[in-house]
C-alpha cells in the first residue's frame, strides 16, 4: 500500500529517521525540520494517501483524534499563544509532499512568521446563487 518513493512513507516506516512525538497503529506525528515556529508538527497516516480525497474514513478519523490530542498537548507544553491547523491539497494550495498530512503550527500574537493575508471581496447575490447552483447536493 505504501509508496516506495514517498518521503513520508519512508518516515512512517522509519527508513528515514524523524523526531517522533507521538505514534500509534495508524498515525505518526513528528517535528517539521523546517518549523515556522518551534514545535511545528506534522501528523501523517501510516498508510499512503495522496490527499483528503483519497484517505479512507477510518484512517482520517484516527488522524483527527491525534490532531486534537496533540493540539492541546503542544499548547500546554510550549509557551505559545495559539496555533494553526493547516492541511493543503494539490500544488495550487501549497501541497509539497503528496502524502496526506496535517500541520500544527504554533503561533505567538506578534510572531510575524506566518501570515494569512487573504484579499476578500463581498460576493453579490447573483454570484453566490450561481456557485450555489453548482455546489448544492
Ligand atoms: Zn506516502
Structure characteristics:
five-stranded antiparallel β-sheet, 3 helices, 18% strand, binds zinc ion, 137 residues, HIT family, subunit A, alpha+beta
Write a structural description.
A hairpin with a 3-residue loop joins strand 1 (20-23) and strand 2. It contains 3 helices and 5 strands; from the N terminus they run αβββαββα. Strands 1-2-3-5-4 form a 5-stranded antiparallel sheet, with helices on one face. It is an alpha+beta fold. The two termini are 32 Å apart. It has one domain (7-135): HIT family, subunit A. Bound molecules: zinc ion. Zinc ion binds at residues 2-3, 6, 8-9, 48, 99.
Quick overview:
With about 140 residues, the protein is α+β, with helices and mostly antiparallel strands. Helices cover about 30% and strands about 20% of the residues. The protein has a five-stranded antiparallel β-sheet, with helices on one face.
* Beta-strand proportion: 15-25%
CATH class: Alpha Beta
Q: Which strand order does the major sheet show?
A: 1-2-3-5-4
Ions, cofactors, ligands: which are bound?
Answer: zinc ion
How would you classify the helix and strand content by structural class?
alpha+beta
Let me know the largest β-sheet: 5 strands, antiparallel
> Mean pLDDT across all residues, rounded?
94
Amino acid at each position: 500500500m505504501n509508496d516506495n518513493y514517498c518521503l513520508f512513507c519512508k518516515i512512517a516506516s522509519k527508513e528515514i529517521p524523524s523526531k517522533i512525538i507521538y505514534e500509534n497503529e495508524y498515525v505518526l506525528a513528528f517535528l517539521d525540520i523546517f518549523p515556522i515556529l518551534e514545535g511545528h508538527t506534522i501528523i501523517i497516516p501510516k498508510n499512503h494517501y495522496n490527499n483528503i480525497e483519497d484517505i479512507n474514513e477510518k484512517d482520517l478519523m484516527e488522524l483527527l483524534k491525534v490532531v486534537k490530542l496533540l493540539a492541546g498537548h503542544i499548547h500546554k507544553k510550549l509557551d505559545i499563544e495559539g496555533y494553526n491547523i493547516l492541511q493543503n491539497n494539490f500544488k495550487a494550495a501549497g501541497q509539497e509532499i503528496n502524502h496526506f498530512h496535517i500541520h500544527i503550527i504554533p503561533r505567538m500574537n506578534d510572531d510575524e512568521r506566518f501570515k494569512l493575508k487573504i484579499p476578500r471581496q463581498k460576493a453579490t447575490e447573483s454570484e453566490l446563487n450561481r456557485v450555489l447552483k453548482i455546489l448544492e447536493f
